[in-house]
Design brief:
It is a single chain. Mean pLDDT is 89; it is low at 163-174. It is globular, with a radius of gyration of 22 Å. The protein has 21 helices and two strands. It is an all-alpha fold. Helix 5 runs parallel beside helix 19 (451-465). The chain has helices at residues 5-31, 37-58, 67-85, 87-91, 98-109, 125-148, 150-153, 159-166, 176-201, 205-216, 234-247, 251-258, 269-292, 297-312, 327-336, 352-370, 387-413, 418-429, 451-465, 469-472, 477-481; strands at 379-380, 383-384. Helix content is 65%, strand content 1%.
């Protein structure tokens, strides 16, 4: 059997940290004269009681986590944090059911951005800050997990980055804890700079901070039902575009830049591929929309570029009803949901490096078909791709499609129409936020969906955020017998 004491100890620490975070919206509500500060303090008290209780009951002289324990810890921590993060949503004046509260919390922590809340413009400031905080914490959490946990678990080809970090000449900092701390500092710095840029662009201080947290986390929660469209400010949109892209690049490379290697960022093939994909897709959508719409060309290009980048990066901000731009544009947006950003960023989706590995492997295979006696080795970032990595990536693609189909079928069984079911499954597993169509599109919310659909979508968000295998492996009986 798996020893769960170290797992519960770390979960307790995480819950205690979450409880401390709940104090911030309580202070904001208290300063604003909103009585719901009591809800946050009560939720913080309960969360801290459970967290400290777990720490005291399971503490030991040394914490050593095996690979199997790491799988359990990763899934348990995200589920536990979501369960307690949902408490403030449940007991505030929003009057959400626990299903809705859990969905909102899961959407926040996984940086998805789908919402069931209607009337954000009138919501208490504490709730708005709490939503932003969840996405901000979830963003840094997934970056640290991508650097320290997923390579060890060899999930979906992430061992490729473990190979790089274990090479002595490629080490950025000597220890994983130092890397995590340095990444956290960069993450905080980007957040502060983004908030200042939003403020200078015309946002209020509160809106600037809230949107900065959800922008750098590529989460997409806003303080308004109309998302960034409510500001109607081109400067705000270009600030968002800049920091959405920054959040989509590997944070480890920012460390290398900070340590005197300015070309490390653009010397990485994953970054070049990602920026190339963004430019090509945004240019196609911008051209199509500018030619087919009757609005000014400059505004049409701005709307197209902003919403395309928002979908590709999985941020989910919206400044227009892009699902009304015609069939071809909708098709591009639907496919763009699956792309994602770079490994080691705050984005989700399939991620660019997997497309690179698949392309290199397929190209190598085609060359072997044409020249059976030739030796062709696929490469990623000028390094040979091992058979283990190639198999992991192909397995990830298969399960990604498989889980997407299962989610879509389940949503269809629960009564959702074809477009809502299909785009809902896509936006959940890719952690994008808005779907397509009049119900869950950029102008809608997920509030009217049946409870069963919200639980299915919550499961999809978790699977997508934790790279599928981290969760699915625990359903294998051999995992528990080993």
């Amino acid at each position: 059997m798996i020893e769960v004491r170290p797992v519960l100890f770390i979960v307790g620490i995480l819950l205690t940290t979450l409880a401390v975070a709940m104090v911030l919206p309580a202070v904001v509500d208290l300063a604003a004269g909103n009585p719901e500060w009591q809800v946050f303090l009560a939720s913080a008290g309960l969360t801290m009681f459970v967290g400290i209780g777990l720490v005291l009951m399971t503490r030991s002289a040394e914490i050593v986590i095996s690979v199997r324990q790491a799988f359990v810890l990763t899934t348990m921590s995200w589920v536990s944090l979501t369960m307690f993060a949902a408490l403030p949503f449940t007991f505030t004046s929003l009057d959400l059911s626990y299903t809705d509260a859990f969905f909102e919390a899961m959407s926040g922590i996984t940086t998805t951005g789908s919402t069931v809340i209607v009337g954000l413009d009138r919501a208490p400031p504490g709730i708005l800050l709490w939503r932003a905080l969840l996405q901000w914490l979830g963003g840094i959490g997934i970056v640290v997990m991508a650097v320290a946990v997923l390579p060890m678990l060899r999930v979906g080809g992430m061992q490729l980055f473990r190979t790089e970090s274990s090479d002595r000449s490629e080490k950025v900092l000597p220890r994983a804890t130092q890397i995590a701390g340095a990444i956290g500092s960069i993450y905080l710095l980007f957040t502060l700079v983004c908030a200042a840029a939003y403020w200078l662009a015309g946002m209020s201080g509160f809106d600037a901070v809230a949107h900065a947290m959800t922008t750098i986390a590529t989460g997409g929660f806003s303080t308004s039902d109309q998302s960034l469209r409510s500001f109607d400010n081109p400067t705000v949109e270009w600030v968002a575009v800049t920091f959405m892209l920054l959040g989509s690049l590997p944070f480890v490379l920012y460390l290398q830049v900070a340590r005197g290697r300015p070309m490390a960022l653009f010397g990485d093939s994953q970054v070049r591929w990602f920026l190339g994909v963004v430019i090509v897709v945004a240019a196609i959508v911008a051209l199509l929309f500018a030619l087919s719409s009757d609005i000014a060309t400059g505004r049409a290009i701005r709307l197209a570029v902003f919403n395309t980048i928002s979908v590709i990066t999985g941020t989910g901000y919206a400044t227009a009803a892009f699902d009304n731009w015609g069939g071809f544009a909708v098709t591009i947006f639907f496919l763009a949901m699956f792309i994602g950003g770079c490994a080691g960023s705050t984005t989700c989706g399939i991620k660019i490096f997997r497309f690179q590995v698949l392309y290199a492997t397929a190209t190598s295979h085609m060359k072997r078909l044409l020249q059976p006696h030739g030796v062709f080795i696929p490469y990623y970032n000028r390094r040979p791709i091992t058979d283990e990595v190639a198999l992991s990536v192909m397995s990830f693609f298969f399960f990604y499609v498989f889980v997407f189909v299962v989610l879509a079928v389940l949503l269809g069984v629960l009564g959702l129409d074809f477009l809502t079911a299909l785009s809902g499954a896509a936006t959940a597993i890719s952690n994008v936020g808005p779907g397509l169509g009049p119900i869950i599109g950029p102008e809608g919310t997920f509030s009217t969906l049946p409870s069963g659909a919200k639980w299915v979508l919550s499961a999809g968000m978790l699977l997508g955020r934790l790279e599928l295998f981290t969760v699915l492996v625990m359903f294998a009986p051999a995992f528990w017998r080993a």
